[in-house]
């Protein structure tokens, strides 16, 4: 925190800091104490680029999620309004369980035994 304001540590073993504009009885110098500027723009540029790349990816994912939600809603609507319900397992109609009828023998000669 002190380093951001331009103070420097003067005694390594103690928490003692100094600033050339911080002097006893000289209040007019206090206005010269300023917070240091952030790191140079060249060092923060890769982070800004990565941040922008992540923002674009996030927007693309949100758009895709929205599209998938619409598709889901359309599928649910279609199933509810156009697909007949399936009978629960174990409750088949009799026509499904009945054996197929024997082949018709009309008009064919009898097969040898």
Automatic annotation (TrEMBL):
Coiled coil: none annotated. Residues 96-113 have a biased composition (Pro residues). It comes from the Eukaryota. GO terms for biological process: regulation of transcription by RNA polymerase II. GO terms for cellular component: nucleus. Residues 90-113 are annotated as: Disordered. GO terms for molecular function: DNA-binding transcription factor activity; RNA polymerase II cis-regulatory region sequence-specific DNA binding. This is Uncharacterized protein. The lineage of its organism: Eukaryota, Viridiplantae, Streptophyta, Embryophyta, Tracheophyta.
